[in-house]
Amino acid sequence: MKKILNDPADYVDEMLEGMVAAHPETYAQPVRRVIARAAGAKKGKVGIVTGGGSGHLPIFTGYVGTGLLDACAIGDVFASPSAEQMAEAIRLADGGAGVLRLYGNYGGDVMNFDMAGEMAEMEHDIRTTTVLLTDDVVSAPKEEAEKRRGVAGMVYAFKIAGAAAERGDDLDEVTRIAQKTADACRSIGMALTPCTIPQAGKPTFEIGETEMEMGMGIHGEPGIWRDAIKPADEIAEEMLDRLLADQPLAKGDRISILVNSLGATPAEELYILYRHARKKLDALGVEIVMPLVGRYATSMEMTGATITVIKLDEELESLLKAPADCAFWRV
Amino acid sequence: MIDSSAIAKALSGIAAHTATASEELCSADGALGDGDLGITVSKGFAEAAGAELPNDVGIALLTVAKAFQRVSSSSYGTLLATGFMAAAKLEKGKTGIAPEDIPGLVAAARDAMMARGKGNLGDKSVLDSLDAVAEALRDTPRGDMIDTAITAAAESIERFRDQPSKLGRARMFGEKSVGLADPGQLAFLRILEGLNGT
């Protein structure tokens, strides 16, 4: 293992300490492993919380900020935070108008967040709702779409639901918009090399020097095929084909697209992927709004990329374009 | 009425008894799972026994659930925490648990744990023990409740011993689980035994 760290056991806590120290105007850590807005909960505003394992920055913690999330519970690398931490995040996000739990569909996270909601309701009388991201098209067939995992689509959900909450929508409305966003997102990933969990010390999977895996998940979950690496245009072509097969697009449709690095893949290569994706979507007559290219949802130093497409309507588009601010993203 | 100090005393009794049984539970679990069940249960009750409990018995039970969650992220720990939460909801705002409420609390815990663990009765799991105890307690006079519960939990183990597991990690062992006591059921029996004398 080759990593910049002190004791692997301190990896997450030292990362959070550094992040808050670097951006004190945005983040605070009022409770261990719970990041909240530095300014605290906004009175009368619906709170939005998320949570999940470390190792995905800027997801999840990074997106706490104005027009985005209010608080986030963070676990060990790739491990769920506890229900108690999540309940603390809910309490810290509560401005008296209820709290939406918005996160990815992973078994441990769902179980703990459900309990956290019960705890917050019982102890602090906070009303909560849940929306789960299930955007990874490879993780289950369309007929079982509710079993799919949540990946980079979370970025759009945080942004759009965050804007709705910031403008003063009530809990039911923010929840409706978050669900609509989740339903409109489709993602797919591919990987070239694995990452290493600090406390495990070994790569999450093995892959040949000249191989790629199509459809791989953000924690190294198995994909669809593994073979010799293909040219970028063919990779982009297949990824988009699979997204379009799941959610067809027609001439005149408006979308946003996120070409995301899993960590080690450089911006240069993301732009090479974007170039081809753009051509393909242009040929279909699809209008691209606010394309995002960069590191948004990573898997530490994994090499690879994900592509997310969100189909927009007027409501989602205006919320996507609304102002937002965190250390990783400004709109 | 069972007030918060009685709950605290019961937790200490369970913590002590499950610590003694920890090795037995780990080896029972090792035959069908990852072998840490004794640690999960004894650590959970030790943490709960060390917690300061408020007078509101509902919030006291919530504190117990949280203690479990904190020290043990295993599925058995989460299930027990879920059971305590279900009981906590029903008792919120009270300063004591009425003995006649107990069968209902056990049944509520069973239902919440079935929903969260996505398990069914007859799967050979702790859910069957809870069900057996809830049923047995329904018409039991208050002085005999602990004995009745222990008997029901012990009978449940024997009733399922010769069936294959159909839930959780033990399910992967299929026919190999036939003839073995379900570790979760065994842990529940040891928990109830810890109540004896408190």
**How helix-rich are the residues of chain A, as a percent range?**
25-40%
Stated plainly, the CATH topology of chain B is called: Serine Threonine Protein Phosphatase 5, Tetratricopeptide repeat
CATH superfamily of the largest domain in chain A: Dihydroxyacetone kinase, domain 1
Shape of chain A from CA axes? globular
Strand segment tally of chain B: 0
Q: What does this 3D model show about the protein?
A:
The complex is a heterodimer of chains A (331) and B (198). Chain A has 2 domains: 11-183, Dihydroxyacetone kinase, domain 1 (Rossmann fold); 185-319, Dihydroxyacetone kinase, domain 2 (Hypothetical Protein Tm841, Chain: A,domain 3, 2-Layer Sandwich). With 331 residues, chain A is α/β, with parallel strands linked by helices. The mean pLDDT of chain A is 96. Chain A is built from 8 helices and 15 strands. In chain A, the strands form 3 sheets. In chain A, strands 7, 8, 9, 10, 11, 12 and 13 form a 7-stranded mixed sheet that branches. Chain B is mostly helical. Chain B has 8 helices and no strands. The mean pLDDT of chain B is 91. Chain A binds chain B through residues 79-80, 82-84, 108, 111-112, 114-115, 118-119, 122-123, and chain B through 58-59, 62, 65-66, 69-70, 73, 78, 81-82, 85, 88-89, 92, 116.
Task: Record the SSE blueprint.
The complex is a heterodimer of chains A (331) and B (198).
Chain A: H1 11-22, E1 27-31, E2 34-37, E3 47-54, E4 71-77, H2 83-93, E5 99-104, H3 107-124, E6 128-133, H4 153-166, H5 171-184, E7 185-193, E8 211-214, E9 225-228, H6 232-246, E10 254-261, H7 267-284, E11 287-288, E12 292-294, E13 303-312, H8 314-321, E14 325-326, E15 329-330
Parallel strand pairs in A: 3-4, 3-5, 5-6, 10-11, 10-12
Antiparallel strand pairs in A: 1-2, 2-4, 7-8, 7-13, 8-9, 10-13, 14-15
Chain B: H1 4-30, H2 37-50, H3 57-71, H4 75-91, H5 102-117, H6 126-137, H7 145-161, H8 183-195
Helix pairs in contact in B: 1-2, 1-8, 2-3, 3-4, 4-5, 5-6, 6-7, 6-8, 7-8
